[in-house]
Design brief:
4-stranded antiparallel sheet, mainly beta
């Protein structure tokens, strides 16, 4: 199983970015897909997550600014980030809890850097 994330980059405060993460390989079903982030010197934290049925959960710090969505047919999760702030600067990791021949477990993508700076 591979999770391929893309869409990070440098953006000015107040700008927008859209992250994508596609899961591929041996997959029977994906229960939850989500985004985490880790800023320098800080622990990895949940940004937002979405179930296969479309229920979402997000950190208070991003509510009203970030939107998570998912295309189940493509095994892809998106994170639309608007009104970005310097404190959103971090490496963003996608995560999927999925079922395959190995059972149900969590998989991580490689991370994509988001830098919010003027």
């Amino acid at each position: 199983v591979q999770l391929q994330a893309s869409g990070g980059g440098l953006v000015q405060p107040g700008g927008s970015l859209r992250l994508s993460c596609a899961a591929s390989g041996s997959i029977f079903s994906i229960n939850v897909m989500g985004w985490y982030r880790q800023a320098p010197g800080k622990q990895r934290e949940l940004v937002a997550a979405i179930t296969s049925g479309g229920s979402t959960n997000s950190a208070d710090s991003v509510k009203g600014r970030f939107t998570i969505s998912r295309d189940n047919a493509k095994n892809t999760v998106y994170l639309q980030m608007n009104s970005l702030k310097p404190e959103d600067t971090a490496v963003y990791y996608c995560n999927a809890v999925l079922r395959n021949w190995s059972g149900t477990r969590s998989y991580w993508g490689q991370g994509t850097l988001v830098t919010v700076s003027s």
